[in-house]
Amino acid sequence: MAELTRAAGLNRTTFYNHASSPPDALEQALFGELDGMRAVLSEKAADLSMPLEQVWGGVTRDFLGYLERYEDIFTTGLLDGRSPILTRLVGHHFTTAIVLLLDTRPSLVPPDLAGDELALVAHSRFVGLGIIGVLQTWLESAPPRDPDALARILLSVLPAWLKQPTDA
């Protein structure tokens, strides 16, 4: 804690006025922007005239810009599970984003999962944590990393039911 406050040019009291711990500060710093991205996802997904692949493409580009801004944090924290807190936060973000997408576009929900809230959250969490595995693999590759490759791989690992409405 002393190192963190010294590096930030703050005293401990100032820090604790804004966050209860370093993980809490990390969550606040990273999640404001992620919350905004989820709001954009919801807005785009609600526009049923927008093809789903365009929604996914926009969300992926937004996340890639975010990842680029915080690459050092993600490279340090996600590789080899060095930061369980960061892994949990990012997993929560993706899970929440997928649940939000399914709430906004119920036609994506497979008929066998319709009405089964537990199964929907479990599937969403499975996909969300899988995305972390993709990010870890990409971050392990040697710089400069290809953002188009990450976008392509992310879209390729999504289950078909998240890419195509069941009524299409």
SSE layout:
Blueprint: H1 2-8, H2 12-18, H3 22-46, H4 52-69, H5 71-78, H6 84-104, H7 117-140, H8 147-157
Can you give a write-up of this model?
The protein is mostly helical and 168 residues long. It contains eight helices and no strands. Helix 3 packs antiparallel against helix 4, helix 4 packs across helix 8 (147-157) and helix 6 packs across helix 7. It is globular. The termini are far apart.
Summarize the structure.
By secondary structure, this protein is mostly helical. It contains 8 helices and no strands.
**Mind summarizing the main beta sheet?**
none
Note the overall shape.
globular
- End-to-end C-alpha gap: 53 Å
Strand element count: 0
Mean model confidence by pLDDT: 87
Helix content: over 70%
Order of helices and strands: HHHHHHHH
Structural class: mainly alpha
Strand content: under 5%
Low-confidence runs = none
Tally of DSSP helical segments: 8
Rg is: 18 Å
Q: What descriptors fit this protein?
A:
single chain, 0% strand, mainly alpha, 168 residues
